[in-house]
Amino acid sequence: MKRLSRMGEDRKGFLVTVSTPTRAELVARAEGLVPLLRENAAEVESRRRLTDDVVDALDGAGLLGLRRPARYGGHEADTRTVTDVVTQLTRGDGSTGWTAAVWSISAWMMARFPDKVRDEVFSSPDTRVCGIIGPTAVATPADGGVVVNGRWSFNTGVQQSHWNTNAAVRPLPDGGYEPVMLAIPVDDLEIVDDWDTAGLRGSGSVSTTAENLFVPQERVLSIVPVIQGQPSYEGEDTAPAYAVPFMPTACATISGVALGLALAARDLFFERLPGRKITYTSYDDQAQAPVTHLTVAKAEAAIEEADFHTRRAAEIADLGGPQGWTIEDRSKVRLHMGAACRRAREAVTLLADASGASSVYSSVPIQRVERDMRTLSLHAIMHPETNFELHGRTMCGLAPNTDYV
d(Cα 232, Cα 222) in Å, to the nearest integer? Predict the structure, then answer.
């Protein structure tokens, strides 16, 4: 991602010069936050949401504007840049990396709405948008919009967000349903504080509910064109960052969380390695033991493979499908995401297992990384076997068994 200087409009319509940071600059900013994120990680986990210091640091580094449209002061960053930033943030703390990924993906989704909605949502430079893609609510047509009833679980970062992109189904006259995305102010939702989990505890992925909530028509977006990478309405923003189907860019982004956790495990293992003994053996220095050499080499191979699959997913998302985004192109991104998740988990497990009994203390960070990694790999979208099956179906000429591809 090269630095771009171009003429754009500010929110008042005046022409201004817009300078976009390069990928290297944004990734360096994220890497620079790693010590702060590690310092805050225990408190983030205890609070079950990010600390104010962490949110302020992300905002101050410009990392919450990765997918904000440029006309509203954002970077309109490509998928590779977002993925690399998320990877570095996750090296510091898994919950922070996951939350930042969700905020980025959700800002991308909000950028697909009409100007009237975007002007309202992005009117403040520090607006944070979270989102849910599972349509677990019903949006019943009403005069001028829809009336929404439902509940959304795993709503990451909602307590520290201003707007929510919520998926729902809208009944059709023929008795069927159409999946839609809704732009809803967080203040209009009820927060259910039910996020008490083994891993990614600091992501604040609580549930939210809506009861007879009216949403005006301009805040209702048909989701099928967004998933397929097609225009949703006349006059939609055609910037390259938003010309990608939803799932490829989202899946590549969260692959960075898996890779970041593997890198964090490697960092933490080698920080504790010097001078550690292997109890009940003659090894006074774990670094001298052949079993350690085998373990770290296997972990490194898995990390290298996770890195490859993460970068390949982002590359496909940015370059586009050679046949115009076929099902096979889109499912291949999910294949690479599943592979990245599997290899990252292998690396984390190897290094956690080699960290000794003392690593079970809550004061030793690698146990948190291991719990975060397990939780991540159980996510319905990231589960390796689900993704392998999906791409295998397309290879065999069968239709996908999901709309989320």
Answer: 7
Candidates 300, 373, 370, 311; CA nearest to 337 is 311
CA dist list (Å): 73 to 66, 236, 351, 353:
10, 18, 41, 45
Residue-wise pLDDT tens for the chain (405 aa)?
A: 444 444 445 544 544 455 789 999 999 999 999 999 999 999 999 999 999 999 999 999 999 999 999 999 999 999 999 999 999 999 999 999 999 999 999 999 999 999 999 999 999 888 999 999 999 999 999 999 999 999 999 999 999 999 999 999 999 999 999 999 999 999 999 999 999 999 999 999 999 999 999 999 999 999 998 988 887 777 777 788 888 899 999 999 999 999 999 999 999 999 999 989 998 888 888 999 999 999 999 999 999 999 999 999 999 999 876 567 889 999 999 999 999 999 999 999 999 999 999 899 999 999 999 999 999 999 999 999 999 999 999 999 999 999 899
**Is the pTM higher than 0.90?**
yes
- 301 and 308 in contact (C-beta within 8 Å)? no
Are the beta carbons of 163 and 110 closer than 8 angstroms? Answer: yes
**How many CB atoms are closer than 10 A to CB 200?**
30
Domain regions of the chain by residue span: 19-121, 129-223, 244-395
Residue with tokens 């090296």: 91
- Where helices occur in 115-171 by DSSP H, the ranges are 115-121
Fold type of domain 244-395: Butyryl-CoA Dehydrogenase, subunit A; domain 3 (1.20.140)
DSSP H helical segments within 240-326, as ranges? 246-272, 290-319
202 DSSP 8-state letter: G
How far, in Å, CA of 167 to CA of 306, rounded? Answer: 30
Q: How many CA atoms lie within 13 A of 4 on its CB side?
A: 13
**What's the CATH class of domain 129-223?**
mainly beta
CA-wise closest residue to 169 among 354, 403, 358, 359 = 403
CB neighbourhood size of 112 (10 A): 22
Whose CA is closest to 54, among 24, 5, 94, 112? 94
| CATH class as words, domain 19-121 | mainly alpha
